Amino acid sequence: MTNILISGGGVAGPALAFWLRRHGFNPTVVERAPALRTGGYKIDVRGAALEVVDRMGLREEVARNGTDMRIARFVDATGRQLATMSAQLFGGREGDDVEIMRGDLARILHDATKDDVEYLFDDSVTALEETADGVRVTFENGPPRTFDLVVGADGLHSTVRALAFGAESSYVHDLGHYISICTVPNHLDLDRTEVMHPAPGRSAGMYATARTADAKAMFLFAAPPLPYDRRDLAGQRRLLAEVFAGQGWEVPRLLDATAEAPDFYFDSISQVHMDRWSSGRVVLVGDAAYGPSPASGQGTSLALVGAYVLAGSLAASGGDHRAAFAAYEDDLRHFVQENQKLAAANLKGMVLKSAAQIRFQMFLLRLMPHLPGRNGMIRRVTEPIRKAATAITLKDYGRASSSAS
C-alpha cells in the first residue's frame, strides 16, 4: 500500500486524506497544532467544490452547519446605518452555495477521516530527504519515518514548500493589503448579521453567525509590505492599533478585545504563484501551492477541488507519481488561474481609497433595491464568481486502482 504523508490538518489535508483512503492509499496527516483547529472565519463552498462535497457524501452535513447569515449592514463612525444588503449578495453567493465557518468544515472533514486515517497532532516536518524509493521525513517531535510520497497542505507559509522548493519570497506575492480576524464578545448582540464600517484605505467589521454566542472582529487595510514578525502576536496587535487609531464606530472596543482573543490572526493578503506544484516525490495542494488569498473568496473551494483532483490523479496513474503530478497540474491549472483573478477586483470593493468612493458605493447600495432590472444587476455582480467556481469539469476517478495497494 502506498504510504503518503500529508503536512497540514486544516481543510486541504483532511480532504486529501479522505480521497486517498477512498482510492486505497494509506495517508498520514501531521498537524503542528496540539489539537484540531476549531476557530477561523466564514468561508464559502460553491461550484465545483460543492460537487466535491456532494461526492464525499457530506453535503447535508456541511449545509446543516452553514452560518445562516441574513444581512450585511454598513455604518458610519457614529454607528448610523448607511446601507444594507442581503448576506447572500454580500458574499457573492447564489443557489446552493454554502457559507460555513472554517473550523466547522475542518471538524466535519476530520470526523469523516479520523477512524481510518492516522493523525499526528503537535508535530511538524523539519527535514525531507528523498531516497531512491521514498522520502525520509524528520519531525520536530516524533521519530523519523519514510513515506512513498509527501504532500504539503500546510497553507500560505508552507514548511514543506520551503523545504522542497526554496524561499517563500519566490512564490508568495503580497497584494498590498492586510487582514486580521479574531473572536470577540458579541457586545452588539448581533444575530446572523454582519456590520461593516468603511473608511479610506481601511475597513473594520463584526459579525455573528448561527449557533454561536460570540462574534468575529475583522480588520482590512491597504499598505505597502510591512516588516513584522509572524510569531510576535503582541507586535501585530500594536501594528493593527496604529493603523486603526482614530477610527470611530466600535473600532476602539474591538481593538481592545483583540488582546484577549484566543485565535488572533494577522497576515498579508497574498497569493501563491508557482510554475510547478511538485518536485520529485513531494507535491503541494491548496494554499501552499496556489493560495488565491482571502480576497478571492475561493481558497477553500480550491483546496477541496485540488485535493479531489490530486487523489484521483494518483489513483489513475498506475503507480507513476510523476504522471499523476503532471495530470494534476494539467487538469487544475486553468481553474486555479480563473479563481486567483477574482482577488484584485474584489479588493477594490472591500477597501475603498477615498471618502468620495465610500459615499458613492453607499449611494449605489441604497439605490439598488429600487432600480428596474435589479435582478440582472445582481447576476452581473455574482457572474465572475460563478464562472470561476465552475471553471473545471470534475472527472470520475472511480474506485482505487491496483497501484494503491
Automatic annotation (TrEMBL):
GO molecular function list: FAD binding
Look up the domain of life of the source. Answer: Bacteria
FAD-binding domain mapped to chain residues: 2-337
* Family matches, as Pfam families: FAD_binding_3
In Swiss-Prot or TrEMBL terms, this protein is called: FAD-dependent oxidoreductase
